[in-house]
Amino acid sequence: MTGDLKSEGLKLSEHLQHAERVALACSGRLTPLRRHIYKCLLIADAPLGAYEILGMLDGVGASKPPTVYRSLDWLIGVGLVKKIESISKYIAKTSLDDSNRMALLLCESCGNAEFFDAASVLDSLGNFAREKGFEEHQTVIEILGLCSEHQR
């Protein structure tokens, strides 16, 4: 998860209310399935794969991979979920995240993912790309390694 719900001082219900507002602002609807998937990602201890989410549906929506992938794509599109490209897993974004300016630390042992502010690095990379005449569409910084609890 992008951050511990308790450390952010927000309740799960507040995150879900935020998700409802985001959906409305995007002229969309947070369907029961989308809401359930977002909630699963919010409460997860680590990023989840689509098939892990599929196993957590508990009768909410159709239990088929395309349904989960479509819902995840929608949640990504409105900015509520981020796909971690290197491990093909998903993480909930909260109202406090600005993932366009963030990067991820990924523990290879426990699977924990933690966002960190990477604005200056991303600015530098963006400037370099523009100087080279390159049109940037997306920059993803994911650092794989071991968290402090799993180092030898």
Main pleated sheet: 3 strands, mixed
Structural class: alpha+beta
Integer-rounded radius of gyration = 16 Å
Q: Please state how the strands of the largest beta sheet are arranged side by side.
A: 4-3-5
The counted number of beta strands is 5
Which of globular, elongated, flat, extended, rod-shaped describes the shape? globular
Layout of secondary structure:
Blueprint: H1 12-25, H2 32-43, H3 50-54, H4 65-77, E1 81-84, E2 89-92, E3 102-107, E4 113-117, H5 119-131, E5 142-145
Parallel strand pairs: 3-5
Antiparallel strand pairs: 1-2, 3-4
Helix pairs in contact: 1-2, 2-4
Descriptors:
single chain, 152 residues, alpha+beta, Arc Repressor Mutant, subunit A, Dna Ligase, domain 1, 2 domains, 3-stranded mixed β-sheet, two-stranded antiparallel ribbon, 5 helices, disordered N terminus
